[in-house]
User: Fold these one by one.
Assistant:
Number 1:
Amino acid sequence: MSKSADVAVGLMDQAYFVGRAELLDFFNNLLGLNLAKIEQTATGAVACQLTEYIFPGSVPMSRVNWEARSDYEYIANYKLLQNAFTKNNVQRHVDVNKLIRAKYQDNLEFCQWMKAFFDQTGAHRDDYDGKAVRARGKGGKQYNQKQSGAAPARGARSGSRGRGVVPPSRPTTTSTIRSTTTRAAVGRSASPQKKGSPLRARENNMSTTTSPDPELIKKNKDLEAKNKDLEAKNVEMETKMHDVETAMAELEKERDFYFGKLRNVELMLQVHQDKNFEGADLDALVEKIFKVLYATAEEDVDIDDEGDIVPVVDGEDPLNTTQASEPTSVAALEDEVF
């Protein structure tokens, strides 16, 4: 089987059932590492070295950053990895945005795929010196020195977001704590507190913190005054909003009133148009139109199917009352309507 193409690994493939311990042993034994957590592979440097093992010379190991701490440094490593995949026709999408977050599940699945791909390619290199290969990269020698130390505990937290290996902490015993406390107490008793010394100043500051600070009291009063002012402005704004809503309602009512007039005129003209104006008294028609236009809101005006004005419910036609003078022009009539 050729190593120049990716072998498909499905989500239900046996490769995705490989455990964390087996993966760590695989990377550590093959590449001479001392990894303790899967999250330590999030920098992309380990994947670059494994790819260089499978495809010798495909990754410029001198450009691999083993001291990567920032996201942009991680991304630079993954760019080298992706270029190597492209060069060797490996059809594998590397989700860099997920991997650089150093989340366990994302990096576990990628490590499982890397191991499965390695097993399927059957790559093998005699006398491979993983430490020497890493030493050619940025910070590779320092990384090897950290890796050569004692392996950290499995549950230890290795830096921010799982990046890097944390050296074992110095054990703390009861006798050490006791001796340190004794020396500190002796030192305090041996050195007299001079007037104006930093220790005396700190004690004075601690004693004064119990009393109210006049400046804080003043700031508190200022904030209360501002709060009252904002509450008053809020009430004022609510009142204005109510006035605006009332005005809008009145405008909508007026709009509907004038629209009703125009609709009645339109119905009247449509009826006469259907009759082709045969025998129609145009003067009477114009008079009816003016009656509709000049009708007030209290005058319930409507048009029947014959195009005539329907009288009010009580039988009295208020439109027969004296009308206002006719508009002198079409523009004046439009102003009156709208």
Number 2:
Amino acid sequence: MSTENLTNLEAIKKIKELSESAKICMFCTELETLPINSRPMTLQETDGEGNLWFISSDTSNKNFEIKDDKRVQLFFMNNGDYQYLSIFGTATIYKDKSTIEDKWSPMAKAWFEEGKDDPAVSIIRVEPKESYYWDTKAGKLVSLLNFVANVVTGNTTDNSDGVEGNAKI
């Protein structure tokens, strides 16, 4: 794989592309405790500033852990296209009606009996501090065909179909 470090708008674009493509991440808290607490979370959106938004219950362990330590780690995987993203950042919890209204998804009703008016609804914003990505240029099918061709011919892969690097906002 070649290395391509991204900054500012390019980094935001890559973070948005990969996170929204994967949609689900492993959301990790209490990073100094082993084993690290992690759970799957569905991304609501990645905004134009690179912040990642999630809906959560204010009574969840995750929220309690964030109140003690705002540092979180997110791992996104889109195996279908060989795309991966790791984000270390700080989390902020919102309980105000305007943020809940803005970030609400009808799918979240499955977890909140009273919908967006449920008193347990909270919104988590993760502000990336450090990010690293792995992405194929051509997608899964072309990468797979190149791999198979190399196996058949006995050649080794030159890893030129992929790119990885830091994404710093």
Number 3:
Amino acid sequence: MKFTKVCERSDVPEGEALKVESGDTPVAIFNVDGELFATQDHCTHGDWSLSEGGYLDGDVVECSLHMGKFCVRTGKVKSPPPCEALKIFPIRIEGNDVLIDFEAGYLTP
């Protein structure tokens, strides 16, 4: 696994999201009660940023384009219209540094 530093922990306030990118891979980092999760940034239903145009309620992000919902822990769809899960990315915290493995994104079975 190749982890890349993308931000500091303090850059993602609790209950908020931050968009980070590596090449053509935009990833959203979500802070749920102090725990960080990383998913693909774009909704699987429409080309819409979840970090910049979504609403985080607990561990569920709602896309503001068509109101679809996803669990940021698993990437699974919680409410249609999306029917395809989000890709999730391995995330690691080292001190205050947040690192993501952009090459190891996967779908939860």
